[in-house]
């Protein structure tokens, strides 16, 4: 680690920042944009080969994106990351093809979180810019697996993998499932994308402003942003209001590549950042898809408040709207500083019983077994069951258990490892 600008965030904040496919002997380095320390993914993944995006693509991205790891062998290849149980994480992966293999053929492959399908990464849809996947998720066990699955349409690739523990476990709650990033905007005429260190959890905030409909309000005073969500100061220090003082403030979107029945959560961050006179009032109703979420709302002076739902929402035929409607009492138009929209991802499959996982990994180490399928969850999903294993996955509300282990044809010698006894559900060895 460089002597001058050590980023202690990896240690203090528990960040993991991987430059996938960088040489195993390359020392960690600090990313210029964020100051975050990136290191090689060697040690987090057992398989794959390394490549590099072509030079003309390099200039479009910061250094951590230049290298990539691709997976020519096996169906499912997995990263294993140590996490703190019960802590919520922001997990982000970036995929940029960059014609690393000179074939000019964008791959398409599937991304899994542990046993569960997350998304199909179809890079042909995104071209040179590549794409990212970002989720907010609370891991169930002490290790988190991010898996890339070959679906017969090119080798899976990955350029960066980032894990950021969130500051507060009580934020971004869902009834079930986890959250996938859809958009995260702050309303400002600025052009600067804001992330770490301004955002202590390294969320990426993109400025958004519709000059035809909105005027900007800014402040030089400090806004109290401490409500658990803690967006950056710069994000809360600007806001948009409708140009025409009596018009509603509204925002519309439609789902891209997701069904019109997609469920979502929205987090709207408000703070009054104008110093109001005694005879001035700002009051408005907040409507999502035409339904009142909050009636007669007044943002708190120079202090954040985040409005959100307890239950997931859906949009009529996939067309979604947010409207802020000025009340008759109000002397000022509505105002909003920032918002975040996430879609709900279902993660129905349970991970294999953790005692069985520890035992089978210990067996793998003891006998130095290097089978390509022996990565990711041993039992789930059933289509990626490890070679030589059988499991009981019958009851979906209980973790799968290992019931059968076949190590023959592995040229094993020596003693029978005592840890085999730890597979307490084994019926056949
Ligand atoms: C993850 O945790 C395991 C067991 O606690 C430890 O042996 C391993 O070195 C850790 N891996 C990393 C990359 O920190
Ligand atoms: C979140 O909850 C877990 C488990 O309850 C705890 O270990 C962790 O310290 C919490 N994290 C924060 C930031 O409060
Ligand atoms: C904030 O400070 C800058 C520079 O001192 C000044 O130009 C600007 O008018 C101030 N903005 C507000 C809203 O006071
Ligand atoms: C900021 O707001 C929080 C919650 O409203 C409050 O607990 C805290 O004391 C405030 N901080 C400051 C510096 O005013
Ligand atoms: C965590 O966030 C919740 C919800 O916003 C808030 O009520 C609570 O005070 C926060 N806790 C801490 C330690 O910041
Ligand atoms: C948004 O507001 C404009 C007026 O500013 C109005 O003409 C338009 O119908 C509104 N759109 C929606 C979806 O409510
Ligand atoms: C509020 O009072 C100020 C004078 O103190 C006056 O100039 C202004 O027009 C008043 N505003 C409203 C909305 O009544
Ligand atoms: C939804 O949006 C699509 C395209 O943006 C449009 O064709 C359709 O009429 C809209 N439906 C409703 C109910 O507004
Ligand atoms: C095997 O089980 C024993 C007794 O429960 C335990 O102490 C040991 O840590 C287990 N070993 C592994 C690798 O899980
Ligand atoms: C484990 O197997 C790999 C190849 O599969 C080999 O390179 C390595 O030397 C073996 N390690 C031990 C300790 O036998
Ligand atoms: C599945 O497991 C749940 C929870 O342990 C239990 O309540 C249920 O009876 C089981 N179902 C079957 C069909 O065994
Ligand atoms: C165990 O695996 C070997 C090699 O894959 C296979 O030939 C053999 O039939 C298996 N044995 C049983 C009992 O399934």
Automatic annotation (TrEMBL):
Membrane-spanning intervals of the chain: none
Listed GO CC annotations: membrane
Q: Which UniProt keywords apply?
A: Membrane, Signal, Transmembrane, Transmembrane helix
Q: What start and end residues bound the annotated signal peptide? A: 1-21
Q: Where is the Malectin-like domain?
A: 18-344
Subcellular location per UniProt equals: Membrane
What name has this protein been given in UniProt?
Receptor-like protein kinase At3g21340
Gene designation: LOC108859556
Principal subcellular localization: membrane
Which superkingdom heads the taxonomic lineage of this protein's source?
Eukaryota
Q: Which organism's genome codes for this protein?
A: Raphanus sativus (Radish)
Gene3D superfamilies, sorted: Galactose-binding lectin (2.60.120.430), Ribonuclease Inhibitor (3.80.10.10)
Q: How does it sit in the membrane?
A: Single-pass membrane protein
